[in-house]
Amino acid sequence: MTSGSLFTRRRLLxxxxxxxxxxxxxxxxxxxxxxxxxSPAGWTEVTFSSVGDPTTQxxxxxxxxxxxxxxxxxxxxxxxxxxxxxxxxxxxxLQFASGTTADLQRIDDDRVYxxxxxxxxxxxxxxxxxxxxxxxxxxxxxxxxxxxxxEGYQFSITPGMSANALYYNKKLFSDAGxxxxxxxxxxxxxxxxxxxVKKLTKKSGNKTDTYGLQYAVNTIQATxxxxxxxxxxxxxxxxxxxxxxxxxxxDKQISYIREGYxxxxxxxxLPLFNGGKLAMTWQAMDISAQISKDVDWDVMPWPKTPLxxxxxxxxxxxxxxxxxxxxxxxxxxMKALCGKAASEVMAxxxxxxxxxxxxxxxxAFTDHPRPKTANVWAEALGNVAGKPVDVPFPRGPxxxxxxxxxxxxxxANNLVSGKxxxxxxxxxGRDAVNAEIKKRGWNGDKGKELLEKGxxxxxxxxxxxxx
Amino acid sequence: MTAQQTVxxxxxxxRGWMFIGPVVTGTLLFNVIPVLPTLVTSFTDWDGxxxxxxxGVSNYKEMFSGQDPLFGKSLINTAIxxxxxxxxxxxxxxxxxxxxxxxxxxxxxxxxxxxxxxxxSLVAVGxxxxxxxxxxxGVINAVLASFGITGPHWLGEPSSAMAAVIxxxxxxxxxxxxVIVLAGxxxxxxxxxxxxxxxGAGRFSRFFHVTLPFLxxxxxxxxxxxxxxxxxxxxxxxxxxxxxxGDGTYVYIYHLWYEAFSLRRMxxxxxxxxxxxAVLLAVTWIQNRLSKRWVFYQ
Lengths: 467, 298
Hints:
The complex is a heterodimer of chains A (about 475) and B (about 300). Chain A has about 475 residues and is of the alpha+beta class. Chain A has helices at about 10-35, 55-75, 90-100, 110-115, 125-130, 170-175, 190-200, 220-225, 245-260, 270-275, 325-335, 340-350, 355-360, 365, 375-380, 395-405, 410-415, 420-440, 445-455, and strands at about 45-50, 75-85, 105-110, 160, 165-170, 200-205, 205-210, 230-235, 240, 280-285, 295-300, 315-320, 355, 385, 385-390. Chain A folds into two domains: about 45-160 and about 315-385, Periplasmic binding protein-like II (D-Maltodextrin-Binding Protein, domain 2, 3-Layer(aba) Sandwich), CATH 3.40.190.10; about 165-310 and about 395-445, D-Maltodextrin-Binding Protein, domain 2, CATH 3.40.190.10. In chain A, a hairpin with a 2-residue loop joins strand 6 (about 200-205) and strand 7 (about 205-210). In chain A, helix 2 (about 55-75) crosses helix 11 (about 325-335), helix 16 (about 395-405) runs antiparallel to helix 18 (about 420-440) and helix 17 (about 410-415) runs antiparallel to helix 18 (about 420-440). Chain B has helices at about 5-30, 35-40, 60-65, 70-100, 105-120, 120-130, 140-145, 160-185, 190-200, 205-230, 235-240, 250-260, 265-295; strands spanning about 45, 55. Chain B has a two-stranded antiparallel ribbon with strand order 1-2. The longest helix of chain B has about 30 residues, at about 70-100. The interface of A and B includes residues 90, 208, 271, 408 and 413 of A.
């Protein structure tokens, strides 16, 4: 082929590559433009984003559709869903650092304190108390304004919480002649629980064939709380968990691992439970979908201590970043997503216990083939005998130090591996927390000082939780 | 050198730079330059949100004054892992390469099978290993039980948990070592092997006196790569043991990750990263110095 030919092989290849590049660029641009919502003129768009698996993301989209129909269309507010696949809360924090979050952002509740004191999110107390567009808090669970509050101020809203309870194998219970309690008010005492754990455990020699119980280290908080102790003493100037009753209660719980009634933490609980080799497992409600259809299961409360019934719920919470284009519209969108229609979507998915009490008690949440006692989950947001079922736990830098010393990290790991005596675990944990308190010169007023320093408190005299 | 030669040399140089330009640019942009902010951050107290506060050498002081006991513990654990993993992994890689370095039928399939774990996700490898090493339901203890031996609680004891992680890492990476050594074996001159055979050298003698010296540059490269890799072990630990039991498998990068993303002490985590960089630099320099004694270049 001569060089003068119109269709040389090289030109053909070049034009092909050019077309391919144009195609790729075009596709990319189309993909970028795909998030355009095309809202009618005069409408306000609010972007909403959360990490989550495909099922969770679909549920959020359904919640948005429900909220849209229920109230947002009337306000001419359109929620634009910004998908964020996966489970990477660290990347959400990076978005905050770079100011690229959505107008309404779902985050890990442990991050709220830092985001508030860093001045990254809006204080919501004023908007929540607004007589026209605020919340009717009597309709929400008692924990709604306390669970994720920062020094009593509202910087986030939690439309639902994943309750922790004991999943139990009904057949193993039946074989052992046991009947599980069906509400927190009727929770077993520790002695009853202890008997049950031992009856349910099947051993051959020094090996355990069927474990009576499996629990995670975060039950320690609940156990200490149940023993009548608190995490901090003397206006937060000293680490708590110093009572002899706490040592006894935790040691008793850890003895289940030492004596083979409960597996060590390295053992995967789910295959054991699915295989009928584990009678009780303390888990958040999102594991339901992973339980084998062959297992007849239900949920029951953790045993009450001499003082209280108890659990430790998990709350992913929603915040309005200071970079939100229209904070009022974002708040209305947030409120709508806590409304009845959106809460029912969450209830039907049994993703979390809706904070809206009427929905948590409705058939949408309770009328499922399993568990029969979904009320155990629902009650986890409330009170029993005037005390919260959900264990209060400090937040902020000292809360982080407490969690790092008692719940996560090597100290807790050593305890539940049977490598550390309970007394040493408590001593090491308390020493670490006290060192952090000393280093920061911490006391009960420091948290508010941090909020003020970070420019977070726009309404320092308004506190929803105080009402 | 004539003017024409100078122009030619310049052109050759330019061509060379054009070839390596993209790699050099990429390395500078994504590897070298990011180290600088990390170095600066290591002198600050920063949670990743608020503005960093300059704290001088306090992060380094915390490390080296014993205020952070996990710093030393994680370094020791990492060293144990490296000592357990690197030499054994390389020896197994050499052995496998020698075994599959022939043209027997089906050998390509065997090579691929050995290489397979290397291209498998480490998370999947870790999850499977947890089951393999399970004390009650694991394959290993089941086999031991068939001989009347009660297997240990592999992942429940610090020493055996570390051993389990090392064995898993060796299994996952043996394919890589094998392929690199296999490539090295192709550079061993056939003539020398034949000459040694004619001189009456046996199989072992041929390997130790002919093949192995030719493989030393390859082994040296593997030693450097695997040492650096072993100091960065993370995924397997996260999936298999979570740093436990206790702090039995709490390695350096796990500590760095925990400080950065659980406690959000970016300044301290950056200081840990800089120290790791310095440790790796020192280890690599020592290996390089020692290599002059045993690495044979043609």
